[in-house]
Amino acid sequence: MKQHLLKSIVLCLALCLLLPAAVSCQGEPPHEPQANEEDYFSIGKIRFAVGQVVTEETLAPLGAQTREPEEAPNCAFDGKGKLYSFSGFEIETYVKNGLTYFYGVYFLDDSISTEKGITIGSTKDEVIAAYGQANDAKEGSLTYHRKGMDLVFFFRDDRVTRIHYLFTVS
Question: For the chain, how long is the longest CA-to-CA vector?
Fold first, then answer.
């Protein structure tokens, strides 16, 4: 009986070590893209979950990087993350408990759109028609609080000049 219990404990520990992205030993469910659009953002056909672990496998479908990843210090968390550059957008990451997570996505040009079709160059009225009234409206920006992240549109002369997805770091 003791030997059976010991084998079960060893097997459980091995699974926790082998599958850290899929199973948490603390009982937390993994972050998976959900059908609810507030749980993810999209770049083309690629969906990213809020708080998703970043690996080479999650970055590969995005295509060739336009430059080598750069270390990216960020005041929202202790330590450094990386900034990955692709055609039309950049992805910023942070490290927590030894794993790398998405922190933000920054649109650079109109070749990339939000899941509701908004691009750099869209009008403020188009943003409001697609997303409704913003949770936070300031001079030059509209912020939509979504589950675990903010979607921020920046404007000049009522045209979108920048789009940022910024994730909540806890």
Answer: 74
Its pTM stands at: 0.71
123, burial (CB in 10 Å: exposed 0-12, middle 13-18, buried 19+):
middle
Take residue 135 and report the two structure tokens written for it: 């949770």
Q: How many other C-beta atoms can be found within 10 angstroms of the C-beta atom of residue 59?
A: 16
Domain that holds residue 65: 37-167
The C-alpha atoms of residue 93 and residue 160 are separated, in whole angstroms, by 24
Of 61, 65, 26, the closest CA to residue 42 belongs to: 61
Q: Are residues 123 and 41 in the same domain?
A: yes
Instruction: Determine the Cα angle at 74 with ends 143 and 137, to 5°.
Output: 10
Domains in the chain, number: 2
Do 14 and 67 lie in one domain? The reply is: no
With respect to residue 21, please indicate whether it lies within any of the assigned structural domains. yes
Selection from 72, 50, 93, 131 nearest residue 141 by Cα: 131
pLDDT digits (tens, 9 = 90+) for 75-119: 666 677 889 999 999 998 888 888 888 888 899 999 988 889 999
Instruction: Find all residues with CB under 8 Å of 150, minimum gap 6, and list them.
Output: 143, 144, 164, 165, 166, 168
